[in-house]
Amino acid sequence: MDRLDTDVIIAGGGLAGATLALALSRVLPSLKVTVVEAFPLSTDALPEDYQPSYDARSTALAWGSRLIFEELGLWDRLSEHATPIRRIHVSDRGRFGATRLSAEDHGQPALGYVADNRWMGLSLMRELQATAVQWKAPAEVLGMTPQPYGVSVAVKTGDKVAQMSAQCLVVADGGRSGLRESLGFQARHEDYGQNALIANVSTSDSHQFTAFERFTDAGPMALLPGGAPDRPGNQSALVWTLTDQALQALIKLDSECRCQRLQDRFGWRLGRFTRMGELSHYPLKLTTVAEPVRPGVALVGNAAHTLHPVAGQGFNLALRGLMTLVEQFRSAIQQGRSLGDLGVLGGYQQAHHQDWQQTVRFSDSLIRIFGQAPAPLAAARDAGLVGLDLLPGAKRWFARRAMGIGGRKPLISGQGAFAEGESAGNE
């Protein structure tokens, strides 16, 4: 085939897929990129009077993720509705163990941010409207067949199915899609035996831009600061780990009783819980794919891994992986190689593997260690938290993991405040 329909097909136009499309347009503008998205595109992209809903869902962005969005020219807009995390307080309910992280100690204005998902999506769409990225929406990728020139991808639009030729297919349609399995990838699922309950809550005391990681005998919970980015508010985003029985019991309660139940589990560090918004929940699993690449196709984002949300690492890991893939594509073009070549995609997997492995282990170990109640283990983890608070080297390591800081260099010359490897203060 002499001429391809496009160079890269991205299956999924959510946060991961849209970010990859924007990154490719910024770093490799000569590439033809097509995004296939199951839902229609929003027609109200960035209304000037946009205001977040109280029940809007949000994502924790590490400091390293801010640097990536700066590099892509998106951060100025995202920051309009991104609440800074200036302090992180990690504690073990009913025990003495605790550690505290402060952005000031690391010479940064924030350790991370909490951003409204819808605002992130609209901001990405506004930027993508000014690029050559093509969208097929609503549409669906049904399958892919390797070809000598790259891949032939079956795309369903309405009642019609057409074949599109491309160098590479990138699957970014989330962990619940059947496309990953239909393409033959084997995902490993480890059930935590619990559920994540997500809701926004209000408290009588201001959060003062502090995120709380609270480990209890019934499971971990997190409260992330929300509201205006320029003044401390009283709204936080809650991630609460609950068993099936506890979840069903909570759902049946009225709002006041739910707040009281949360008060009993979290404590009074934010004063009284005065409101709990709309609830959403889902079962918790650690999902990983050991081999996320094959000739002509790569998995990214939740299609490649789904982590426990309390540690706040999932999207940040995905974002770093997207930039690693873009870097690998750039090297392939410089070498005159096809983007779907297994050597190219294998290079992406190898380059991203250490970050992937360390982040998965870091996130999973927090949940498993702090989810255990036996007294000897509880005493040991409390001592570990105290030691983490007292030992500068260990605390810097923990802070760097939380901030998503590694050694990646900017792909776009002159973009971003500094490279990630230079952003952690004294090392």
UniProtKB/TrEMBL annotation:
Cofactor: FAD
SUPFAM superfamilies: FAD/NAD(P)-binding domain
Family per similarity comment: Belongs to the UbiH/COQ6 family.
Domain (FAD-binding): residue spans on this chain: 5-336
Organism whose genome encodes this protein: Marinobacter suaedae
Keyword Oxidoreductase on entry: yes
Pfam families listed in its UniProt record: FAD_binding_3
Pathway named in the protein's UniProt entry: Cofactor biosynthesis; ubiquinone biosynthesis
Name this protein carries in UniProt: 2-octaprenyl-6-methoxyphenyl hydroxylase
Annotated PANTHER family: 2-OCTAPRENYL-6-METHOXYPHENOL HYDROXYLASE (PTHR43876:SF8), UBIQUINONE BIOSYNTHESIS MONOOXYGENASE COQ6, MITOCHONDRIAL (PTHR43876)
Superkingdom classification of source: Bacteria
Keyword S-adenosyl-L-methionine set for record: no
InterPro entries tied to this protein: FAD-bd, FAD/NAD-bd_sf, UbiH/COQ6, UbiH/COQ6_monooxygenase
Keywords: FAD, Flavoprotein, Monooxygenase, Oxidoreductase
Record-level Gene Ontology MF annotations: oxidoreductase activity
EC number from the UniProt entry: 1.14.13.-
EC class of the enzyme, as a word: oxidoreductase
